Input
Amino acid sequence: MIEDYLKEEVGLTPKDAMEEASRCLLCLDAPCSQDCPAGTDPAKFIRSLRFKNVIGACETVRENNILAGICARVCPTEKYCEKACSRCGIDKPIHIAKLQRFITDYEACTKMNILSKMEPNGKKIAIIGSGPAGLACAGYLAKMGFFVTVYEKYSKAGGYLRVGIPEYRLPNKVVDEEIKKISDLGVNFIFNTAIDSNKLEELKKENDAVIIATGFPKGKTLDIFNDNKKVKIAVDFLKEVKEKKGKIKLPESAVVIGGGDVAMDASLTLKKLGVKTVTDFAYEEFEYFKASKDELLKAREAGVTILDGYIPVKATKSGVCTFTHRIIDSKVQIKTPLIILAIGQTYDLDNLGLSIEDFNSSDYRIKNTNLFFAGDLAPLDKNVVYAVRSAKEVTNRIIDFLKEGK
Ligand SMILES: Cc1cc2nc3c(=O)[nH]c(=O)nc-3n(C[C@H](O)[C@H](O)[C@H](O)COP(=O)(O)OP(=O)(O)OC[C@H]3O[C@@H](n4cnc5c(N)ncnc54)[C@H](O)[C@@H]3O)c2cc1C
Ligand code: SF4
Output
């Protein structure tokens, strides 16, 4: 039901957080910190927490990761810091994400103001896109004294943070709080403005550098689903649900196609909104699933039936969908009023007059231009913590570029 969709998991109590921090081995080599893509330094903030220095922990987390409250909720830590945690060899890893959430919730409820900025340096930067990459670039550059303007095609900032990740995992209230920290650094936001190739040429002339952070906004599809009215693209569906705060009319049953986190988000969202039968068909078998274990478990616990190893081979306009198994001899036919396609997202660069090959460089710069890029467009993992990492790296890259002129 809608309340279920809108309700976020509760965080740790102070006592639980201190107990969890006290399990930390205070490792000298801090493998958790080495494996955080954004350099959040969990070993340092957990040490502060262990010695009851909550304010110090807040400072470490926010100074190191400008989107720390968001990462605390959505980072796939099981692939990074928690996988590296030395306690894995004893019992189970320290729950780093939950501790980070405790710390950033403390920061929010005590209204701490940790971020500061340097004197203006007279340089201007334009950023296209206000998803996590655009936001983090804006924050880091504003801190360094740049005059930053962010152009966003929608009426609000956040990208997939606002219109993709479901409310029960990432409430818009948290997104708003993190964006406020960035706008308080003096960042100028211009909304309802989609940049095209002509405007891009203007921005290149008017600014010392331009960052493209337009992400992967388009959901992929398959030819067999063309012009089929029963089909919705998962990212469009999740956007509609989040914008309407869950108030959307749904049928009694639905099929989801895909085995990644977006497919799990679509499946669980359907269940939370009261759809009785949700069946997910995934290309991968369970052991190779792309979705995080946690998301997969939650979807299964909510009653989503997941059939692994199947590919869709036919779909009729009346909603009869046929799947065959990739390995065993098995065919499944199912009639459904709604098919949600969650088979990946891709770039949309046509209006900017650029091609994806332009974004292949490891130094975040389009060759021989003052154009830089970050986030999903960079050849890195496609998630929020990597968006933050790319923002830190592109900030340093732009500082070098403006110093050296190359
Ligand atoms: C449903 C879903 C669930 C996810 N769950 C997680 C998760 O749990 N954990 C995680 O780490 N990651 C998750 N991700 C991935 C994560 O959201 C992305 O990797 C991240 O948002 C990429 O950031 P970005 O800034 O590059 O792009 P985006 O977030 O896509 O932002 C791009 C922004 O650019 C704007 N834009 C595009 N073109 C133009 C233009 N021409 N002019 C002006 N503005 C433009 C868009 O409107 C948008 O606001 C999820 C993604 C989805 C879709
Ligand atoms: S690796 Fe685990 S046990 Fe070691 S410092 Fe990091 S969180 Fe603590």
Remarks:
- The pocket of iron/sulfur cluster (ligand 2) is lined by residues 24-27, 30-32, 42-43, 46, 85-87, 94, 96 (CB under 6 Å).
- The chain has three domains: 2-109, 124-217+347-404, 219-344.
- The chain has 16 helices and 15 strands.
